[in-house]
Design brief:
The complex is a heterodimer of chains A (534) and B (302). Chain A is mainly α and 534 residues long. Chain A has helices at 11-21, 25-47, 51-62, 65-71, 79-87, 90-106, 108-112, 115-121, 128-154, 159-186, 190-210, 225-231, 241-263, 287-326, 328-337, 344-374, 377-382, 388-422, 425-437, 440-456, 463-480, 485-489, 507-529. In chain B, 35% of the residues lie in helices and 29% in strands. Chain B is built from 10 helices and 13 strands. Chain B has helices at residues 42-49, 71-75, 93-104, 109-118, 132-144, 162-177, 189-195, 213-218, 260-268, 282-300, and strands at 4-13, 16-26, 31-35, 57-62, 78-81, 150-154, 181-186, 198-203, 206-212, 221-228, 241-247, 250-256, 272-278. In chain B, the strands form 3 sheets. Chain B has a 6-stranded mixed sheet, sandwiched between helices. Chain B is elongated, with a radius of gyration of 23 Å.
Chain lengths: 534, 302
């Protein structure tokens, strides 16, 4: 580091260090998000260039409450309006997650590793790490905003509205950058900070769904920044002033973060971690017990979040049904495609959207294996009386059964909440449970892919995220394009019968299950034969 | 039967040869030093011994068994402390000690308390909040708490302060008294010199010397400083005298062990006023083997 660092001491070298450490992950994040949004826009433009087709699609979307409940309503019947609508939830969620993970990584995680102490002692100002993290995170968000705006304009969408749309997404990213700048000051451990921020993101999502446009709690949507992104009304009037709300909160939270940071000691949080037990509980005596101890926080978090989510979606289902029943034309339309009740299309959509979310848990749980290996925690067990298979299987139990548990809890609360309001309790519950469970082989497929990579090519274990990203893109493509069936078939989620949409069980589901098991077995076999590498 | 028996062990990482025909034998009850600069292959050897890495060629026997195939059985009879200790950040030190001890079998609670006291560890802190030295202490206590046959330490005192280093040395001496076998890898020579019966020196994946310290010293030069009554002559012609500096009746040089007798006889003819002879330290032994490269490593702190 250069010696001339006095005022904002050392921020610049820290920015360079942070950018160097993230030189691969930042471009990947940016590319993924920008391509996802521009891809959606391009496919909409491609598909609905004809005004009549566009109008028909708009009416279909607008009158389908099951879709507007989750994705919000389409505010303007244009290709731009559809783009804003289709990316209005996924765009902010993804940029929010990116911001959370980068902020935690460059502030609290660094502090936990003690690296910051080293930096702070060498003439680096006390706010340098926070400043550099904020600077790079805001920077990434601004680049994403610019690229999206540029892309949309190049694709031929209206100039001002394209800027408004991208600003909405960018502002959401900056907001979560600022939120996380605060949460990392509060907690002592980086995972707690991450949970706190992601928890808020989930809460905002839930509020947005409860406050959906056709519901009676519309005002709740204003409590959620996801609602603000919607209220900016890109391509439908462009309400610039909503960006002001974002600005106020971003500024306020950033100032709060600096204030908290100046009040606390390096390494500690505002909420200080209590000392733990000096002795381990009697049960902590096996690999499985340790894995439970390490996994339980994440598992409980997911179970609680999806119990909540299921409840919210279940209650919303009733209002969706009411809205559909009131719309005779639509009622007629859906009775032609499926023979179920009016809420069926809603459930089919909910499950299709969430199937891929559960796969995230399946990958996260297995990824622990690689994390534990590369951080050398596993060495302490594997040089003790724990065999390689034992260690791996005890982790896999949580990946396989944990994802099943989360899915069952989600389906149960969804069914219970809907059943309690529809009155048709047992039948609805069973149908929802069955249609959710058929997603398990597809979710386990991602477990299988991750285990396989871990066992055979551990350094590339994170490729399973690329695989999931690919499946998401394939499913999205299938929604808008006339993609040939063999490409769609690459995604395990294509193989899942949508029971609520009238599909029946097929043999391919069985094959999916067998393939997932085979991948897991090969992964186990590979891990027993290979070197343990850091 | 030897506790550790390694014959012609060879290991490749891809095309890079990490170990080349390494031989190492450790007898029961011995404290064995394994020294060499960083990156020489110490940890690789230990990790093969622990079944974490697969060997490419050669033979490795640990207490008569194969460390790759009989890993679990063997691990119950040994305790290992890695060079760079990483522990689950959400567990307290006390919990880790209990967990690792229990996995290895029964352990003595009083011994646990005694070790925690001796190493001055706060067992209620979360591992994520410990400093490097404190993590090291947790790992050391977890190993020492178990009553096993073999203890393997990889650079055990890297993060410890001198006081705790002393505690560690005492613990090793107690293990030796109890008839345990210890394999200690290190690049801190004073530590190895103070504790070990025999050593092997490894460099670039090859064992370049093995023996007791006395044996190794025979291979090295003693440094001599002399003040004589008459000016010294003729030293420059003696084979085995190195780095000679003569200033009238004062001389400083080093001499090969086998030429010692001859040189001292030669010196007496000039009349000795004072003579200081310093035995070679392991540092010198190191520099002799590693030469330039070793001093370079020290400078860059690698």
């Amino acid at each position: 580091m250069s010696p001339n660092l006095e005022s904002i001491a050392g921020t610049w070298p820290m920015i360079k260090l942070a950018l160097h450490r993230d030189k691969i992950i930042i471009p990947v994040f940016i590319l993924f998000l920008v391509l996802l949004i521009l891809g959606t826009a391009a496919s909409i433009i491609n598909l609905y260039s004809d005004a009549l087709v566009l109008q028909a699609f708009y009416l279909q979307m607008q009158t389908n409450p099951s879709i507007t409940a989750i994705l919000g309503s389409v505010l303007d019947p244009s290709t731009g309006g559809l783009t804003a609508w289709r990316t209005g939830i996924s765009g902010p969620l993804i940029i929010g997650l990116i911001s959370i993970f980068r902020m935690v990584r460059h502030t609290r995680s660094e502090e936990r590793k003690g690296r910051l102490e080293l930096l702070d002692s060498t003439a680096v100002g006390r706010q340098a790490s926070l400043t550099s993290a904020l600077f790079t995170s805001f920077g990434v968000n601004i680049i994403i905003t610019l690229l999206i705006a540029l892309g949309l304009i190049v694709l031929g969408l209206e100039f001002t509205s394209s800027i408004v749309l991208s600003l909405g997404i960018g502002a959401f990213g900056c907001l979560f950058t600022a939120i996380t700048a605060v949460t990392v000051q509060l907690t002592e451990s980086s995972s707690d900070a991450r949970y706190l921020s992601v928890g808020l993101l989930v809460l905002f999502f839930v509020l947005r769904i409860i406050g959906w446009d056709n519901g009676n709690l519309k005002c709740l949507s204003w409590l959620s920044p996801l609602g603000w992104v919607h209220q900016i009304r890109a391509f439908a009037g462009n309400d610039w002033w909503v960006l002001g709300i974002f600005m106020i909160f971003i500024l306020g939270l950033t100032i709060t973060a600096y204030w908290l940071s100046s009040k606390r000691d390096v390494g500690s949080g505002i909420i200080n971690q209590r000392a733990g037990p000096a002795r381990a509980s009697k049960c902590l005596n096996s690999s499985l017990a340790l894995v439970w101890r390490l996994h339980r926080g994440m598992l409980i978090f997911w179970v609680v979040v999806f119990a909540l989510m299921g409840m919210v979606m279940g209650f919303t289902a009733q209002t969706v049904t009411d809205a559909i029943s009131a719309n005779h034309q639509f009622l007629q339309l859906i009775s032609q495609v499926s023979n179920g009740g009016p809420a069926d299309s809603y459930f089919a959509l909910v499950l299709a959207l969430f199937g891929e979310v559960f796969a995230v848990y399946a990958i996260l749980a297995v990824s622990r294996l690689r994390t534990e290996e590369s951080k050398k925690y596993s060495e302490m067990l594997l040089t003790n009386s724990v065999s390689r298979s034992q260690w791996m299987v005890s982790n896999l139990i949580f990946a396989v059964l944990g994802s099943a548990l989360i899915m069952v809890v989600f389906a149960l609360t969804l069914g219970l909440a809907y059943g309690s309001s529809s009155g048709n309790f047992s039948q609805d519950l069973l149908r929802i449970l069955a249609s959710a469970l058929v997603y398990l082989p597809a979710v386990w497929m991602l477990t299988g892919i991750t285990v396989f990579l871990f066992g055979i090519i551990p350094r590339l274990a994170s490729l399973s995220w690329v695989a999931l990203g690919l499946f998401v893109v394939i499913d999205l493509l299938g929604e808008f394009f006339d993609v040939s069936q063999w490409i769609l078939n690459l995604s395990p989620f294509t193989q899942v019968p949508k029971l609520f949409a009238g599909d029946t069980l097929t043999a391919s589901l069985g094959w999916l299950f067998i393939l997932a098991v085979a991948l897991i077995v090969v992964g186990l076999w590979g891990f027993r034969r290979r070197d343990i590498i850091g | 039967m030897s506790v550790i028996e390694i014959k012609n062990l060879t290991k490749y990482y891809g095309k890079f040869q990490a170990l080349n025909k390494v031989n190492l034998t450790v007898e029961k009850g011995e404290v064995y030093g394994f020294i060499g600069p960083n990156g020489a292959g110490k940890s690789t050897t230990l990790r093969i011994l622990l079944g974490l890495l697969r060997k490419n060629e050669g033979e490795v026997k640990l207490m008569g068994q194969d460390p790759w195939h009989d890993a679990v059985k063997l691990h119950k009879k040994l305790a290992y402390v890695p060079g760079e200790v990483n522990l689950w950040p959400n567990l307290t030190g006390g919990e880790v000690i209990d967990l690792l001890g229990r996995l290895r079998g029964e352990f003595d609670i009083e011994r646990r308390e005694e070790l925690i006291k001796r190493f001055k560890l706060d067992p209620t802190k979360k591992c994520g909040a410990y400093s490097t030295g404190n993590k090291q202490k947790v790992a050391l206590i977890s190993a020492l708490v178990s009553d096993v046959e073999l203890y393997i330490f990889d650079e055990p005192t890297l993060g410890l302060d001198p006081l705790m280093e002393g505690v560690f040395r005492k613990c090793i001496k107690e293990l030796k008294k109890g008839g345990k076998t210890v394999l200690l890898s290190s690049h801190i020579l004073a530590e190895v010199e103070a504790l070990c019966d025999r050593v092997s020196i490894i460099r670039d994946g090859e064992i370049i010397e093995t023996g007791t310290f006395t044996q190794l010293r025979h291979l090295t030069r003693t440094s001599i400083t002399i003040d004589s009554f008459q000016p010294i002559t003729g030293l420059e012609n003696i084979d085995g005298v190195h780095n000679l500096v003569i200033d009238g009746d004062h001389a400083h040089f080093s001499v090969d062990a086998e030429k010692m007798d001859f040189v001292v006889k030669h010196l007496t003819q000039f009349g000795i006023q004072s003579l200081i002879s310093t035995p070679p330290t392991l540092e010198e032994l190191f520099i002799r083997y590693y030469g330039e490269e070793y001093s370079l490593d020290e400078e860059t702190g690698k």
